[in-house]
Amino acid sequence: MLTKRFFISWIASSLVMFALSYMWHGIFLTDFSRLTYPKEIFLIFAAFVYLIIGFISAKAIDVKLLENRFKRKPLIKGVVSGACLGFTLFIITSVIGVSFSTGSKIENLLLDGCWQTVEQGIGGVVVGIVHFFVFDSSVVIED
Q1: Domain coordinates of the chain in residue numbers?
Q2: Whole-prediction pTM
Q3: Which one is predicted more confidently, 104 or 48?
Q4: How far apart, in whole angstroms, are the C-alpha atoms of residue 125 and residue 64?
């Protein structure tokens, strides 16, 4: 169900993950200097990608497996679902070759995988925080 809680967590996590990505790739690693097309186009596409990732992250916190394991612990649910999403995205981007990684050295792959997992884990924490603080009358928590 698409609720106020879902929309707030979706947009908030998308913004946080996009900002983290910009800081990591644009400021710390200066990956944007290696782009072969205008940075503005990249940022527009990245914004859409992070909206999709944020949507998945906001939906992933409601997975029943996580609900059974982390009942009443939205921050832990958020970080676990976000980290799993980040690792999955790392694997997908590595396989299809869409990455800023500077090579196929194991160190570069490990750093890229760790960063992706941390970035989406933080996005999941944002989803968890929203789930903790935003009241949703359509959700009834059973003891």
Answers
A1: 4-133
A2: 0.83
A3: 48
A4: 18
